[in-house]
């Protein structure tokens, strides 16, 4: 009971100390305070190793959290400079530990100690001998046992929770700096056993980074450079480009010279007329017109130059047609007779009922295979066509068959056409008439690109006969041989 009473008196004394207004100069808010955790040398397995924590001379009170590795260091106690204690309260430490029970599990402990006291009726600070004005260092001592088998620096760091100015009677927010230390266990000479590389500073698109690894024996740290990563940008948000409608850019925060540009993403329906390469005079050239996957219906007008292109027909992706209506294209041409004027209206729908299942032409309702959904406009190209023969589309309406109504949606058209270029023919033999002993032969080639044909002669082959059967023309006698004759069917 006596010990408990003494402990309570210590704590109450500290609380009183922190509440006393002492008429001496306090630390100015303009001062920068320094708190230092010393580094001491020791050996593995040593008991009661003291680590001093110095605070500014003459400061009133300090509350801090000490952090350490509980597997390497065992916290024992916290005390003050004994000379200071003696001067302050006749040997009773005006220090306390708030959470000592958690020191072994968390590796941290909260400690506090105060410097302002009343000693023998004289007001002063713990670091001053009020009898002879001797100035003592003002520090606390954290005491640890060092585990067996450890080596290198065992860090002890301090985090300041509050600095208390007893003169002002309140907590004071002052600028301070902490120099951390610990208990250093010298290591015998050894080959470093470095762990895996860790990234300290990531590389960017314009600056190298830093990586490090630590020796498991002595905690020696090795560093190395991480090469510049040209793709490690930190992009800004996309912003419109002044003077370029429809375009936007973003700038790398690491390097303003790294800029990306793009067309502003379109929020709507894209309809695309493709551009295909062909040749003058080519027949049945297919131009695909893509509409959004799964859209219900499309009605459009196709325009072209009738002097260069002859409209033949309009159909759907054959795979889609088969899935949609068993081979019957669900497309139609409204004014094919007007195609000679360079304009034709076509329409095709994707919403269908197939085998009693509602679905879209671009979806195989049997196995859910998705097909490209497009129509195909088929043209013959004039012999004198040269360069891009434009095919443009005008959307008359987009139909939502599900809702049975026309739908006004935002759409964007990309036009294309047939690029009629002098064909770099790819000749493939398609027929051959062999030469004979009396007539030339021929080989016919067809271009796989434009379907044009050409013929080459085969010279007469004097040995290419077509012989008939042998006939006896002179019978044999007792003195002469018989004579047999055969005749070539090509030339008797």
Describe this structure in a few short sentences:
This protein has 492 residues and is mostly beta strands. Helices cover 8% and strands 44% of the residues. The strands form 10 sheets. Strands 2, 4, 6, 7, 11, 12 and 14 form a 7-stranded mixed sheet that branches. Strands 22, 24, 26, 27, 31, 32 and 34 form a 7-stranded mixed sheet that branches. It has a 5-stranded mixed sheet with strand order 5-10-3-1-13.
What distinguishing features does this structure have?
492 residues, mainly beta, Immunoglobulin-like, 3 domains, seven-stranded mixed β-sheet, 4 helices, elongated, disordered N terminus
**Sheet with the most strands?**
7 strands, mixed
CATH class of the largest domain: Mainly Beta
**Into how many domains do the coordinates divide?**
3
Structural class: mainly beta
Q: Indicate the CATH topology of the largest domain.
A: Immunoglobulin-like
What Rg do the Cα atoms give?
49 Å
Mean pLDDT: 75
Total strands: 39
Q: Any low-confidence stretches, pLDDT <50, length ≥5?
A: 1-29, 85-93, 116-130, 321-328, 351-366
**H/I helix tally:** 4
User: What's the architecture of the largest domain, going by CATH?
Assistant: Sandwich
Task: Give the N-terminus to C-terminus distance in angstroms.
Answer: 146 Å
Q: Give the proportion of residues in helices.
A: under 10%
Our estimate of the beta-strand percent is: 35-45%
So what's the overall shape? elongated
């Amino acid at each position: 009971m006596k010990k408990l009473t003494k402990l309570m008196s210590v704590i109450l004394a500290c609380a009183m100390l922190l509440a006393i207004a002492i008429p001496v100069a306090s630390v100015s808010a303009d001062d920068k305070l320094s708190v230092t955790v010393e580094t001491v040398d020791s050996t593995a397995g040593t008991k009661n190793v003291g680590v001093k924590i110095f605070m500014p001379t003459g400061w009133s009170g300090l509350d801090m959290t000490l952090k350490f590795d509980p597997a390497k260091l065992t916290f024992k106690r916290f005390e003050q400079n004994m000379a200071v204690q003696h001067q302050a309260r006749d040997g009773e430490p005006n220090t306390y530990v708030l959470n000592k029970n958690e020191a072994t599990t968390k590796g941290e402990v909260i400690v506090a100690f105060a410097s302002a006291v009343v000693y023998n009726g004289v007001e002063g600070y713990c670091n001053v001998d009020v009898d002879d004005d001797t100035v003592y260092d003002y520090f606390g001592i954290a005491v640890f046992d060092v585990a067996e088998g450890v080596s290198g620096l065992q860090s002890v760091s301090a985090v300041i929770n509050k600095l208390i100015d007893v003169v002002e009677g309140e907590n004071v927010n002052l600028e301070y700096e902490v120099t951390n230390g610990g208990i250093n266990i010298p290591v015998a000479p050894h080959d470093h056993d470095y762990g895996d590389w860790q990234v300290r500073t990531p590389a960017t698109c314009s600056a190298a980074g830093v990586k490090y690894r630590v020796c498991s024996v002595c905690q020696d740290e090795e560093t190395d450079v991480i090469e510049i990563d040209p793709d490690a940008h930190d992009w800004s948000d996309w912003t419109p480009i002044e003077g370029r409608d429809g375009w936007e850019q973003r700038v790398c925060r690491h390097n303003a010279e790294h800029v990306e540009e793009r067309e502003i993403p379109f929020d709507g329906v894209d309809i695309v007329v493709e551009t295909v390469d062909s040749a003058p005079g080519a027949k049945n050239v297919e131009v695909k017109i893509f509409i959004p996957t799964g859209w219900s219906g499309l009605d459009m007008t196709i325009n072209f130059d009738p002097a260069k292109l002859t409209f033949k027909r309009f159909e759907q992706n054959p795979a889609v047609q088969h899935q949609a209506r068993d081979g019957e294209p669900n497309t139609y041409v409204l004014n094919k007779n007007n195609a000679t004027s360079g304009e034709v209206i076509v329409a095709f729908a994707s919403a269908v009922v197939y085998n009693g299942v509602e679905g879209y032409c671009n979806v195989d309702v049997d196995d859910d295979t998705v097909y490209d959904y497009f129509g195909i406009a088929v043209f013959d190209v004039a012999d004198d066509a040269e360069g891009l023969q434009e095919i443009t589309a005008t959307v008359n309406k987009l139909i939502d068959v599900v809702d049975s109504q026309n739908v006004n949606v935002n759409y964007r058209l990309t036009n294309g056409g047939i690029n009629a270029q002098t064909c770099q023919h790819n000749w493939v033999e398609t027929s051959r008439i062999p030469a004979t002993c009396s007539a030339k032969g021929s080989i016919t080639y067809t271009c796989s690109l434009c379907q044009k044909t050409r013929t080459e002669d085969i010279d007469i082959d004097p040995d290419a006969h077509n012989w008939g059967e042998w006939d006896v023309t002179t019978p044999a006698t007792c003195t002469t041989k018989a004579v047999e004759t055969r005749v070539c069917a090509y030339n008797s």
